[in-house]
Design a protein that fits this description.
The protein is mainly β and 179 residues long. The protein has one helix and nine strands.
Length: 179
């Protein structure tokens, strides 16, 4: 005959009922933040940009706006590879531009940077243009490959909204390729 201890039965019943009373995890919908994250500043008060892979990075906080928004991109400066820089044939070129998202729309995954002229220099002719909150200053980055033939080359790019409409200042790179 099988003999079961009363304490063991009580423990098993307690565990069974306790697990039935534990709330089950459910997947919560993703809600984007409504306020920009705080930025770190250097001792001089200058914002410190954070780098995430090849994506643009925010360096200035912004205030969200209500209602319909407008898109704009203002070129500020070349961060790397000033116009006329000499590079070797076939070399990798890490081009970065500092721009302002001076519109009232936040750039998200629907925004693109598209090649509009010159030589695409070995990259996809459409690049992501995100994330950037309205009113922020961001660094845009593309890794190009210098052409195999010597000469002067330019690559021009334009921002496009999620509606497919071009906006803002075009950005470009102009290099001199030598063997």
């Amino acid at each position: 005959m099988l003999r079961i201890r009363p304490n063991l039965v009580a423990l098993l019943l307690t565990l069974t009922f306790a697990s039935a009373c534990v709330p089950q995890a459910t997947e919560a919908p993703f809600l984007p933040p409504t306020l920009p994250p705080p930025t770190e500043t250097a001792p001089t008060g200058t914002p410190i940009p954070t780098v995430q892979s090849d994506l643009p990075t925010s360096t200035v906080a912004a205030t969200p706006t209500e209602g319909p928004c407008s898109n704009n991109l203002e070129f500020v400066s070349d961060v790397t590879i000033p116009d006329g820089t000499t590079v070797s044939t076939g070399s990798t070129i890490d081009k970065q531009w500092l721009v302002n998202n001076s519109g009232s729309c936040n750039w998200d995954s629907g925004y693109r940077l598209k090649w509009i002229g010159g030589n695409p220099m070995g990259v996809n002719q459409e690049q992501f243009l995100y994330p950037a909150r309205a009113g922020t200053q961001v660094t845009l980055r593309i890794l190009f490959t210098a052409p195999a033939a010597e000469g002067t080359y330019e690559s021009a790019w334009q921002a496009y909204g999620s509606n497919g409409i071009a906006f803002g200042d075009p950005i470009f790179m102009k290099i001199v390729v030598i063997p």
